Amino acid sequence: MKKALVIGGSGTLGKAIVAKLKDFPVEVITAGRKSGDYQVDMTSTDSITALFESVGSIDYVIVAAGQTHYAKLEELTPEDNMISVHGKLLGQVNIVLIGQHYVNDKGSFTLVSGIIKDHPIVKGASSAMVNGAIDSFAKAAAYELPRGIRLNSVSPNLFEESAEKYKGVFIGFNPVPVERVANTFIQSALGIETAQNFKVY
Amino acid sequence: MKKALVIGGSGTLGKAIVAKLKDFPVEVITAGRKSGDYQVDMTSTDSITALFESVGSIDYVIVAAGQTHYAKLEELTPEDNMISVHGKLLGQVNIVLIGQHYVNDKGSFTLVSGIIKDHPIVKGASSAMVNGAIDSFAKAAAYELPRGIRLNSVSPNLFEESAEKYKGVFIGFNPVPVERVANTFIQSALGIETAQNFKVY
User: Fold this and answer.
1) This protein's superkingdom (chains A, B) (predicted)?
2) In the predicted structure, residue B9 carries a pLDDT above the cut 90
3) Fewest beta carbons within 10 Å, which of A193, B3, B118, B135?
């Protein structure tokens, strides 16, 4: 049976992906900072390497985690911007750079970007920057992956489940059910496409 | 008279931008790692701050510099990827984050990304990642800039002037004269648009 590793499996999105994967003949393994079957600190390359060493044979790597820093542009410092760079950008890129040497033939990577890249919000410049980097990295790196391994990113809109909490931030956005976003992660991970930036807007 | 600061003013692109600016009533100041009117190390926030402190009143900030690391994906390490992150991504972003507090009302920032983001090449994943980040940052941050300050990025194709040197790398790309790219930097810097990713393909 194929194996899927969901990193960030205990968040809103991660849980929805794990639930959706139950419809498929796939063994699901979860990893998170503090919860899940395995612990991983995405900001540490040693921790990412240790994760792949521990998990062993793996087919589908799905990332549903990544911290970014929100601040008004005038208050955004180079230092605070690094929270996003390390937390969401490099963490995901390093999962591919390190994981490419572990994932089985015809496996896949699915990364998470976000709608702020296409539709900016106040305080969102750092997050937008990272989302753009993830989409472009996924598109370019996919073509160089060996052994039929695929790579895509998924850019979600605001989740319906978070809409009330963020209604003053994502002004006028039409939220989508997280279940629809999770479905697109499955499409990316288990389907045939590669080098794509899937939008769930 | 308005003042333009061209960072990376002694490279192929920078020189073309400086030459093109001579057609306009703008005082041109150049900065570079080792050449130009001022020296700046884009990887250092202290150096960027010192540049703006030294230059004084400035209207148009144009960046035509940025180092990225080219490597086959299977050989691209997290450490080598940081060359691009520090050299082209954070350097430019920090020029905006720091420079926003110095640039005159109705001034502008113009950053440089690149075609690899849209049309990947072998060994180009790190560069594509950075280009995507720059485009998305420019688009998002622009809307938060105060005092009528504008921000765009320009994504150039391969230069005709470099086409022979890179013919085995940029396979089938239709190169553009660097003079056309320089012209688009002028359009961004001195025009009225903001939050745009200009492509010169």
Assistant:
1) Bacteria
2) no
3) A193
